Amino acid sequence: MADPLSNSRRHSLVPSFLYSSSSSMTTSTDALGPSVSSSLVGAALLSKRVVVPAPKEKVEMYSAGFYAACGVGGMLSTGLTHLAVTPIDLVKCNMQIDPIKYKSIISGFGVLLKEQGIRGLFKGWAPTWAGYSVQGAGKFGLYEFFKKYYSDVAGPEYAAKYKTLIYLAGSASAEVIADVALCPMEAVKVRVQTQPGFARGLTDGLPKFIKSEGALGLYKGMVPLWGRQVPYTMMKFASFETIIELMYKHAVPTPKEQCSKPLQLGVSFASGYIAGVFCAVVSHPADNLVSFLNNAKGATFGEAVKQLGVLGLFTRGLPLRIVMIGTLTGGQWVIYDAFKVFVGLPTTGGPAPAAAAIEVAKS
């Protein structure tokens, strides 16, 4: 007897609302033999009485698809959030470059609105979005890869014991690579935002920058960018992983696996915002240097430190950056985790991956 629904077609013909975690129907019909069971399943499907078990995961953990999904989630979260805070970033960069003209957050917005209008508040949005989208894809995707890789190298016991070191090493490795893609766009962004009349945006700003300083000039701020981004990302991931674990342990009365997805995403945002405050403080001196070097043609590291001063390196534009980075980091984690939920992956946080491996090894 012909099989009315072959195995290759069965899932494609069953709508998702028929999925269930129960496998009793499949087990009972399969025991009758392939021809009979297929016929029964086909007939039952037509009468809408069968419930086909849903796959437990849409994406296999730690597969190539998993890392690709994390990369896409990172691209969306980082690119969109940096695009959204472009006005804040614009004021912050100008406060760092010209504190006499841009004395405070409020007056800085006032000056920009008066001179450039509403549209001027989003000046440099294109290199911001392009640079941080690519950087975010590398940062999040590679972080998940290196976190798993270093955990495997250390072994289950040491990976669980020194999990914070795993977070730090994984995030640092990911950011060093991701910044290579970010650096050219960051150079163009700062020049567009802080030098009136230089360019309208990415399409005319990039060739103009290369013509002025050469292709290698796009990487003039590479070392300060690493100095800003690597500590920032190490703090971002390690503190987030620690804070969210503490949140589920002390602040959320329900175990994570019993929490609704909206509640888990809320915990991700809160943990990310707190982590962002630490990130801003740690990376701020290097952020001042990046802004100064990318704005001033031919400027050196020593000249930047001398003009900004030690105190200025740590404090100039810091309050605004705390607000910006806190919002950015919280938003990135909630968008990243929302995308993971969308593709069938668990939200970030909870027990370290190696901790589960220890239980398996001991059993």
Task: Describe what this molecule looks like in 3D.
Belongs to the mitochondrial carrier (TC 2.A.29) family. Its main location: mitochondrion. With 363 residues, the chain is mainly alpha-helical. The chain folds into two domains: 60-219, Mitochondrial carrier domain (Mitochondrial carrier fold, Alpha/alpha barrel), CATH 1.50.40; 227-348, no CATH class. It has 16 helices and no strands. Helix 4 (64-84) runs antiparallel to helix 15 (318-342) and helix 11 runs antiparallel to helix 12 (261-295). The longest helix is centred in the C-terminal third of the chain and has 35 residues, at 261-295. The chain is globular and about 55 Å long. The two termini are 47 Å apart.
Order of helix and strand elements from N to C terminus = HHHHHHHHHHHHHHHH
How many extended strands?
Answer: 0
Helix content: over 70%
**What's the pLDDT, averaged over the residues?**
82
CATH superfamily of the largest domain: Mitochondrial carrier domain
Q: How many domains in all?
A: 2
Low-confidence stretches: 1-56, 351-363
Task: Give the C-level CATH assignment of the largest domain.
Answer: Mainly Alpha
The amount of beta strand, in percent, is under 5%
What separation lies between the terminal Cα atoms? 47 Å
Main beta-sheet annotation: none
CATH topology annotation of the largest domain: Mitochondrial carrier fold
**Number of helical segments?**
16
Q: Please state the CA-atom Rg, rounded to the nearest Å.
A: 25 Å
Q: Based on helices, strands and strand pairing, what is the structural class? A: mainly alpha
Query: Can you tell me the CATH architecture of the largest domain?
Result: Alpha/alpha barrel
The dominant shape is: globular
GO molecular function: mRNA binding; phosphate transmembrane transporter activity
Subcellular location: Mitochondrion inner membrane
Solcar repeats: 65-149, 162-246
Membrane topology: Multi-pass membrane protein
